[in-house]
Amino acid sequence: MPIHDWTRVTAGTWHAFHLSWISEIQLALNGGLLPPDYYAQAEPAFGTEGTAPEVEGVPTVVLPPPRTRFTAVADLCEYAQKRRTIVVRHASGDRVVALLELVSPGNKAARHAMRSFVEKAVEAVTRGYHLLVIDLFPPTPRDPHGVHAAIWEAFSAAPFEPPPGEPLTLVAYSAGSPKRAYIEPTAVGRELLEMPLFLEPDLYVNVPLEATYLAAYRGVPLRWRRVLD
């Protein structure tokens, strides 16, 4: 299913879809995508307490880097408050390993909200939590080159500009050393690609964004599906 233009509906409509999509992603992750010692659950915000765990009992399989078109290596509203984040934890100590965040219009609605989102994302990656960010909203004056460019400023002096005509962003961060970003720009009307969610710097699972998006979209009220379609 092509990505819809979510700027055409109310913030509440996106928020309801956001919750459904998060639930579908959680089901997919816990339904066999994650290794046995990991689990995912929706939590109110970035769950960054504690430190990243030293994982035991996970096969030491080094996977090839994800095949995204761009890779970068570091050189060194109300509804936004109600959003849910997928938090992946390891069963040993229930420590946070990774986060998956769906950007909401409220995250971009004001300078403070955008700054807060970016600061929390930077803090998560800095503290060793891998992060997958899904941003289906176009840039604003608060993030003129997209949310990834705003986050990546904290890690690299090399700026990022999305290709023309691809204002939306899918980006996975590996929080090892060095930090790495796997960026896939996209646009309204495109199908969603699978994106990696890192569990270790060289271990990841591919999140089925298209299938989970489609499952969540079935619950959007007909009144708003007519607008979006």
Describe what you observe in this structure.
This protein has 229 residues and is α+β, with helices and mostly antiparallel strands. The chain has one domain (6-46, 66-228). Helices cover 31% and strands 24% of the residues. The chain is built from seven helices and nine strands. It has helices at 11-33, 78-82, 105-108, 111-126, 147-152, 209-217, 222-228, and strands at residues 38-43, 70-73, 85-90, 95-102, 130-135, 168-174, 180-186, 195-200, 203-207. The strands form two sheets. It has a seven-stranded mixed sheet with strand order 1-3-4-5-6-7-2, with helices on both faces. It has a two-stranded antiparallel ribbon with strand order 8-9. A hairpin with a 4-residue loop joins strand 3 and strand 4 (95-102). Helix 1 (11-33) packs across helix 6. The protein is globular. The model is unreliable at 47-60 (pLDDT under 50).
Which structural traits does this protein have?
229 residues, alpha+beta, seven-stranded mixed beta sheet, 9 strands, globular
